[in-house]
């Protein structure tokens, strides 16, 4: 087997396209639970295939510097993508309970899907500025989640919505917020990959604001 | 720097002792939010230190076979331990809302802490039987979570408990269930480390029952 760092990057892109399909399908009323399960199965297969390819690449090529950072970043991005697939399954379950479109969730999902797209673009284009932007964007997603959770807790308390529907809306909001966290993790991995700097747990990056 | 695979293992044990302190403190009424934040800060420092040590070890020593699997497993275990620390913070916040001991949560936490301890023991003792046991134990934790969530949703609906308290109990149960998932991930990493087999997404392991 002759594998190179570029092959690892290509694997991530194939995995990402499955995950993006799963995310956009999770709130789409035309997609069924079965559709999302089918995607999850493929995502899980890719998850193992990519980890195996990274292991073999490191074992056989003994990469250093940026090539080693690529292999390690790909393993981490792979883990985050797989978890996004799990979140999609959870979202679909709750969306079926709700059975109709909720505007606040739709808007939040658009923002989250953009964040995921940008995180992956920052990886493809080795763009640390875009990656930094994704990290800041996470603050907005967290605020959207807080608003939705607060609104729907109040609606449940005031009997303006049934418990089961309100609870499912809150859960979807939380799942979307988690997907945003995974996108942020990917952006942090891109910065490590490109610069060698580990900026996780760095409050300066986390509290940054977009201009 | 002369680092060996044993040093990586020692790092994990130090990180694990911080995480175990954080987990046991999260539901302990005598521990404050500040106590858990202090532990989280140390856990985050270790998180970066361990990833850096693994990277340097792979770059400088070009390990193969079990030594490489150790470095990769340590990176993954490190990530799961860090997330357990995050879950502890979330649990503490909800425990403060509740302000009293809830027997079902206490019992579930005992089971989860045992699962975490066994996952780490399986790593220390290179014991794949114990690791397999941890993976099966996760089914029981999931069942405990389902029971608590169902019970407290009913209590909220029937006005037997205030919404905020009931909601916090449900959230703690979910956080404990997530910690169980992370312990299961560690057990899967131990099996990969010791055998070279990737058993993730393998239904045979997941549905196994303890004798």
UniProtKB/TrEMBL annotation, chains A, B:
Localisation: Cytoplasm
GO cellular component, one term: cytoplasm
Domain of life per record: Bacteria
GO BP: intracellular phosphate ion homeostasis; negative regulation of phosphate metabolic process; phosphate ion transport
Cross-referenced InterPro entries: PhoU (IPR028366), PhoU-like_sf (IPR038078), PhoU_dom (IPR026022)
Residue ranges constituting the PhoU domain according to the UniProt record: 12-91, 105-190
Keyword Ribonucleoprotein: no
Keywords: Cytoplasm, Phosphate transport, Transport
Primary localisation category: cytoplasm
Entry keyword annotation includes Cytoplasm: yes
Family: Belongs to the PhoU family.
PANTHER family for this protein: PHOSPHATE-SPECIFIC TRANSPORT SYSTEM ACCESSORY PROTEIN PHOU
Function of the protein: Plays a role in the regulation of phosphate uptake.
Known partners and oligomeric status: Homodimer.
Official protein name in the record: Phosphate-specific transport system accessory protein PhoU
Gene: phoU
